[in-house]
Structure formats: C-alpha cells, structure tokens
Design a protein that fits this description.
20 helices; Conserved hypothetical protein from pyrococcus furiosus pfu- 392566-001, ParB domain; about 500 residues; disordered N terminus; 11 strands
Amino acid sequence: MTVTESQTTATEATTTTGQIVQVDPRTLVLEVNVRADAALTPEFVGSIKTHGVLTPILVQRTADALHVRAGQRRTLASIEAGLTAIPAYVVDGDTDEARRIIEQMAENDHRAALADRDRVAAFQQLSLLGLSAAQIAKRTHTKKDHVTTALTVAGSEVAAAVTAKYDLTLDQAAVVAEFDENAEAVKALTVAAVDEPDQFAHVAQRLRDDRDEARVVADLTATLTEAGTPVIDRPSYDDKTIKQVRELATLDGDERTPLTEETHAECPGRAAWISTSSWDGVRAVHVCTDPKGNGHVDRYAYSGGTERQAGPMTEEQKAERRALIANNKAWKSAETVRREWLTGFAARKTAPKDAPTFLAARLVAGTHRLDKASTQTRHRLARTLLGLPEHVGYGAPDPLADLVQAATPARAQHIALIVLLAAIEDGTGTHTWRNVSAEDRAYFTALAAWGYSLSEVEALATVAPTYAVPVEDEAESEAYDAADDSEGHDPEGYDDGE
C-alpha cells in the first residue's frame, strides 16, 4: 500500500492499548531478538516497499517509547524501504522476559523459520532466566530432548561459535560439542558438515571410535606401567632384535619350553607395545627386547612353521599395509553408522518400490547367509533391527513370527526385506571391501539407492565383484582373517589391522 499523509499523521496520535495504529518504524525501539540474522533479502525488502506491511507488528507501550516485541524483520525492512508508517498492534509493556522470547520464537516460526543457531541462543536465554529444560519444552511446544540438545550446544563455546558461523544443524552442533576440546576433530566435523553433509555421520563415528580407542590405550598403558612392564613403540617390521614372548622358549637340552607372560615377568628384557587390531581390539603385545642376551631361543625353530617374509617390506608393501589398516578401521566405524540407519529403515511401514525385485533376485541367486541366519542365529540381527527380543528357544512364542502375523501385507513385505538384509549384513566384515561378492555389491548398491550414504570404504563394495571363493566358503575366509597373527605368523606377511 502507498503511505498517505493521513496515515503518517496517525503515527503521531496517542497509541491506545489493544488497537492497531500506524507508527513510524524509525521511532520504534528494537529489543534484543532471538533471531541473530534478520535475513533482509532484496526480494523481501522489495515486497515491503511495494505492498507495505500486510500483517501488523506487535509493539509494547512504555513510558517513553514503543518497543518492538514481534516483527523485527518487518520493521527493519520497512526502514530500508523508506516507509514512514506501518501497522502495529499495541500492548502494555511488562517485565516477563521469558514470555517475550517465547512469543518471538512462535511468531518467527510461523514466518521465516528460526535457524538452529538462533534457537540455541533463545533456549540459552530462557535457561538463564531460570526455566528448566522441561519448562522450556512445555512453553515453546518443543520436544524436551530437542531443548536438552540445544542447551548442550549452548554450553559449549566451541560448538556455539561454529554453529553461529557455519549455520550447522542442531544435531551436527551437538556432535561438535562432544569434541569441543579436540581442535582437529572440530575442524574435521565442520568441514564434513559444510562440504559433505552426507558423510558427517561417518566422520563423527570414526572420531568416536578413535577417541574410545585412545582411552583404552591410555588405560592399558597405565596398567602395564603400574605393573612394572615398560611400554615401547611398536618395533619396525624388519627389527631382528625384539621378539614377541609367544615366539620364544627356554631351552633345557633339546627340550623347548614356551615362554608365557607369567614366566617372562621377571626377565630384564620384558616390555610390551600396544596393538590396535581391527578385529582383536586393543591389546598388549608382550616382548623381550634382548632374547639372546636373556637366554631365550626361537620357539618355532625346526618346527616347520610358516616363516615371515624375508627382508624388510618394500615401500609399496608398507603403503598397502597402511591402507589396509585405515580401511579396516573405517569399516568398523561405518558398520556402526550403517546399522543405526538400518534400525531406522526397519521401522518403515512399507518397503521401497523396488524391494520385490531385490528380494526375488537374491532368493533366486540363493544366499548362504540367509540359511545361516535362519538355522544358526535365529535371525538375531533382524530381531535387533526390528526392536524385538531374541528368540528364546523352540516351542516358545516367537515375537518375529507374531510380528509378521499381525502385519499388513505391505508391512509384511518390508519385514521380509529386513530379514534378508540383516542376514546379508551379518555376513559382512572387514574382508568385504577387499573381496567383494555379487551379493555384497547388490546389497550396498541397494542401500545407497534407498537413502543410505555410503562411506568411502563401503563404496568399494559396490564395484564389480572380486570374490573368487564360493559363497559356501565365507566362514572359512573369515576364519583366515581372524587367524591373522594368532600364533605370531601372518598369512599375508603383516598383521591385518595392527
């Protein structure tokens, strides 16, 4: 609307509580607003200039001025557009700051929704005014866990600052708050949130796993030190002096007696280094730093045991080993994220449109893993994904069967899909990215098509199959991986996740 002289004159009239009057936006006092950025886009200012303010702002009357209680964005846009009169609904002023903030949030949510960074700041203000998380949730009609998460973010200066600068989502900001004392982790999370948001969950889980591993390593190091066992760095591959205790023995004539951690405990050469195997977790590898000087001999000499590769590793072998270790750890982290996603996917009421094709294709191809899940584990993983208790035994009520019986046809089809997916998932492991089967490829390709964001190492499982061993030999292949270095002999020439 065009501002007329009569409307301008009305600005000067006495403002009456409960009435809509015309006021000059330049005379209004702007209070601290929950919205940090008014988002005055050229389009919005242009609309205000052309059409005026169509919805009155809310102002408080005080002894000396009118204060904007709701309508900061429209007020600022009106000033920028050059308007000298806009409609305002006048209310009496009060000192209820909590009510003012809550009203601003509600008013903004019904227009340009508040950014999460503004919501965090608003909840923090309400908390400082003495409102509990439950009270804030009730008065703002917000879920309590959402409020709690926002207050957690607000309590972290680092997370709050990153959120304000890069406009992270509340969930992303909460993860940053977990690592607010780790600058490198915060940087990695921020880069992922801004540049690759679909990889954020994978980056976060890998950081959590690394953090947890570091804690276990620190605890184990402290335990060893307290027990009087020196902790050393892992020896280089071609070190010929330091030997693992399990590779050594004492010699009495021709009889070799294998050393143990206990029988080696008093040896002057006792020491240990910390292994972080992808399949065996964190453990202490006990060694002797001078086996010859302490009278020890090779336990496996003349035993016909497999010998390690002669000579030092080549640079190519070292690079391959580093990649193997990194990918194995990345796979373990991705497995956590993937199974969390599968749990949410299992809660759907209907299957994806192409699910029948996937089901039929896998059943026609035959899957050893489905048979294994049915006979050996009684679909344990499927029950977990579906939120069901484990099957308690033959003859007892079966929650999975009962779920299928009570399901609609569409839901029953989805349950069947989850049972199949869980069986395939249960057969995956760190071997999967190295030896891709046709079933693995179909599985990970389908997950990606249904909305799961593959990590870099999981994406390797979508390439053309490289798995030459029959499906029936999967258990044997896994045992081969698990046997890696179990007796000090590495079938591939190096420890598989260490």
